[in-house]
Amino acid sequence: DWEQRQEEDTLLIERMLLLVRNVLHVPADPTEEQGVDGDASLHDRVLWALHLSGLDDLLKFLASCPAEQQWALHVLEIISLMFRDQSPEELAALGQGQAAAEHREDTRELAALRQRELAERRGRALQRPSR
Q1: In terms of domains, do 64 and 106 share one?
Q2: Which stretches are transmembrane (predicted)?
Q3: Is pTM, for the whole model, over 0.90?
Q4: Which of 17, 47, 70, 106 could in theory staple to 74 by disulfide, Cβ–Cβ 3.0 to 4.6 A?
């Protein structure tokens, strides 16, 4: 129960957040990461492991829950370090590209559904007996 969290639990959570922050803070070693261009960097692999463990969802919870405001700066640092190798321009363009692609796909699906609905209406109208 979070309301009855003991001091020991609070310290454990803080230490875990600091550990994640420190792991993400380790700088990239260019000599270690000289692989094929498509290979994921060590930082990317750590991020993937954090995602698989569900830590990203926990961070979202801690960031959005008013009762957990004491962790806000730790969460902010971790999120900042998660995006440290990304340029804001690339992230914004990626989001816009995905949104535009999703919009085109949704429009295509909507048009196909509309055509199907019109065909069904025509079929029903032809099946009605005339008086």
Answers
A1: no
A2: none
A3: no
A4: 17
